[in-house]
Design brief:
Layout (H helix, E strand, L loop, with lengths): L1 H12 L3 H30 L2 H31 L3 H15 L3 H24 L8
């Protein structure tokens, strides 16, 4: 993706920490905007103003925010994972693994919480008996 490479290049060349973080968190919005914004501009130049405005509204309201909402709802329903696990997992995963940390961070944090819960139920609450 050319847009991602451009933002990544600007991101790594920047020495100002505030701009660095702003660019880092705007990548998903800019990345999707590089797809629907030129199409909306083409539609507007072609004379389809209604379709161009509709596409811009859809891109801003739905496309850029759907990942933030749908991921939390799906994880709560499918895996019974608390949304804070996902949020902290994404932040930790991004700092450790980069872009792939968006997926691996929450997954690893959820597995860690599962293992701690298994240990707590099994050994601290006495559900498992020691072999004789």
């Amino acid at each position: 993706n050319i847009g991602h490479q451009l933002i990544r290049h600007i991101h790594h060349c920047d020495r100002n920490p505030l701009r660095h973080q702003i660019l880092r968190h705007l990548k998903p919005i800019i990345g999707t905007g590089l797809v629907w914004l030129p199409l909306a501009a083409y539609m507007a130049l072609d004379g389809s103003w209604g379709a161009a405005i509709g596409l811009c509204a859809y891109g801003i309201i739905v496309v850029t925010h759907v990942d933030n909402v749908v991921r939390f709802v799906m994880q709560k329903k499918l895996a019974d994972t608390h949304p804070l696990v996902t949020i902290f997992g994404v932040f930790i995963g991004l700092s450790l693994f980069g872009f792939m940390g968006v997926i691996f961070g929450p997954l690893m944090l959820a597995m860690f919480i599962f293992c701690v819960d298994l240990f707590k139920k099994g050994y601290l609450e006495g559900h498992y008996k020691e072999p004789s």
